[in-house]
Hints:
It comes from Clostridium innocuum. With 349 residues, the protein is mainly β. The chain is 0% helix and 33% strand. The chain has no helices and 22 strands. The protein has a 4-stranded antiparallel beta sheet with strand order 4-3-6-7, with no helix packed on it. Strand 3 and strand 4 form a beta hairpin. The relative contact order is 0.11.
Amino acid sequence: AKKDGGASGAVKAAMDTKVKKAATAKPDVRPEIAESEDISLTVKLPSSVTKGLYQFGYIEQGVHDEIVPFDILTRGSNPVTITGLNPNKMYYIYVKQIGEDGYEDSLWGDLYVEQKTDYPHVIGTVEISVSNNTTAYGQTLTAVVKNGVPTQKGEWNWYRVSPDGERSSSLSTDSYYEILDPRDIGSKIEAVYSGDPTKFYAGEISSQSEEVKKAEVKAPKKTTPSNMVSATDSTFTFTLPSQDTAGSGLGVDEKFIVGYSLSENGVPVEYREDGIVQTYTPNTEITLKNLKRNTTYYLFLRYAEQAEHYKSDWSAVDQRIVKKTEKTNLTGSMHFTYANTGATNPIQG
């Protein structure tokens, strides 16, 4: 029989209630550009934004109809670099807030910032070579770009970089640099290849040389002929030769140092007066004093150290000056007094 009250059995329906997340207000701030490159833009929110999780998105002019989200999130006003962009294109940057703690993501904000990416950046590696394999005064640095794009257009600039990292104004716009400024000594020289904006390139690549040292200069080629040296028992007087032609670190106002040895194969010692090494101007007459009498001296010349170079080696052995001081001539008279007589002349008997 049919039972009152409905069908046989009971069906219980359970209804899941879906809780809707709370809405997050869209940002009312305009993104800012922190840095622009050719294929990236670094963006951030104003420093007044200190809380919240955010996502940036972009539209490339003439390409996108909708905002393209960039997948890296940021908190507060920390910067984010949007990569994968195209050079020399206009972009519109938007931001939205990511929902947290039961809140849903906001809509994209209405405020945006527009920024054009740079021209294509020059790429490759700058390599510097130096004449005579010595980074020193008087040498020439040459720069080339390796592993770059053959069609890229750029320009060179050379800079002096001090030990504390300070860069000078441009020293040269050639692909080479001659180290002829004493201020370069103790610094590194940086070669920078920058994209030429008139040829639609941007960016820069660079490399630095080793620290510039003073030059090593060759020994004087000329000395004074030995027969042109006048001697006394304690002095030599002679005229110094002219200096060698300036170049390769040698300047135009050089000074000589005289060295001497008392043995034929000895190592020269720098001549001093009152304990001080003397330096002399070329083509001038000099006198070496307080020499030993009746002694052979072997004389050599070297260039004194200057702001541009170290001391040179001594002049060659076959160019040395060989000269002997004179014997001492006795002067005055001698008086004899004979013992027990007080006489100054001999007495017979």
